[in-house]
Amino acid sequence: MKEIKVLGSGCEKCVKTAEIVQEVAVQCGVEANVVKDSSPQVILEYGVMKTPAVVVDNQLVHSGSVPDRKKVAQWLE
Amino acid sequence: MLSLFTKFADWLCYELLGLAQDSKLGDAVHFFIEDTTKIFFLLIVMIYVIALVRASLDIERVRDYLAQNNKIVGYFMGSTFGAITPFCSCSSIPVFLGFTSAGIPVGITMSFLLTSPLINEVAVLLLLSLVGWEITIVYVVLGLVIGIAGGFFLDLIRAEKLLQPFALKAYEAGVMPDRERSHRPKLAFAERHDFAKTELFDILSRVWKWVFIGVGLGAALHGFVPDSWIEDNLGSGQWWSVPVAVLAGIPLYSNATGVIPVMESLVVKGLPLGTTLAFCMSTVAASFPEFILLKQVMTWKLLAIIFMLLLISFTLVGWLVNIFYAF
Question: Of A21, A23, B163, B319, which is most buried by a Cβ count within 10 Å?
């Protein structure tokens, strides 16, 4: 079970990012719990300055754009 | 070269659509066609070219640079970087926290955040092509001055005491970012091209509707408000017209792309430059939706101070420019 957090202020791109991650997880048959988090404390904790950002099992793997599907699949491996 | 767009609008409007040259509708439609085609052409070319150049400038570098410099230079650089760094308003919270937790004073961070919506490449480009280089320079210089002075003032009143407790803690614990980590290799052209392409689509997808709204309003003003009305009623820069313009700009929420075509129309109609600038700056920079976002890191008191600070600066800018241009 992968714990995935999408960090961002709740803008369009963050919503899109969460959707993509969820879809790819289903496609790859990976069990994942995707949550969106807009709390400034959490954003600060990961030192993110560009949103949307993606955290997989407490590791920051991406920030600043909607990630492409290939990348997302790599994180989920 | 830009006269091409006038000719195109002449052709489309008067020959193809058969509108009368001196009719109100013809005038408005002509303005709309000329400006939208011109603006989209310029946007596509210039956003791409500028993005190629600044592909290597990102927000982490700006932070590292600001954290390493002294305060006086800091306000100036914060404001300048605010003008040239690509940055979307939905990132203002992460940027604010990123800067603050690197130990950058709140004033310098705010210099960056205040200037950012006022000046950017799209705004400068539109100003240059629609209202000429003189007004462009006045606008850019005043935008920078507001950012610098605003930031300086906020540090003077020790604005960090009015942050949310967790943000204040992060500021006090401020760690200088690690230089090694932020060092990045030079970008190849292919990477620059990719960046520029993404930027182009990203910016266009955000601003296209504002171009239509802005030019639409500008065209309506241009065609349907009688030439003498603005000049007769507001043309001599009555002192009260500036604060009224600033207040009128608050509920109108737009970005620079949308407001500059309106600005063009207002200036042509004889609204004094200072009043016009005050109105535009207020529309662009003093918007409630974006201010409310900052509540997550600031107290209401600080938010109110910054809001008042902006309104007062825009009013002063309007008055000064009106006085200056009256002579």
Answer: A21
Distance CA B101, CA B325 (A): 43
The answer to whether the bond into B251 is cis (omega within 30° of 0) is no
Smallest CA–CA separation between B177 and chain A, in Å? 11
d(CA A7, CA A58): 12
Looking at the DSSP bridge assignments, the partners of residue A32 are A2
Is the CB of A44 inside 8 Å of chain B's CB atoms?
yes
| Nearest chain A residue (CA) to B206 | A12
pTM for the structure as a whole: 0.81
List chain A residues with CB under 8 Å of B166. 40-41, 44
Segment A23-26 long-range contacts (CB within 8 Å, at least 24 positions apart): A23/A69, A24/A69, A24/A72, A24/A73, A24/A76, A25/A76
Tell me the three-class secondary structure of B191-257, residue by residue: HHHHHHHHHHHHHHHHHHHHHHHHHHHHHHHHHHCCHHHHHHHHCCCCCCHHHHHHHHHCCCCCCHH
What is the Cα–Cα distance from B43 to B272, expressed in whole angstroms? 27
Domain extent listing, chain A: 2-76
Tell me: pLDDT of B281 over 70.
Answer: yes
Residue showing tokens 């009224």? B244
DSSP annotation of B18 reads: -
* Length of chain B as a residue count: 327
pLDDT for B145-159, tens place per residue? 999 999 999 999 999
pLDDT digits (tens, 9 = 90+) for B126-135: 888 878 888 8
The three-point CA angle B205-B97-A49 to 5° equals 40
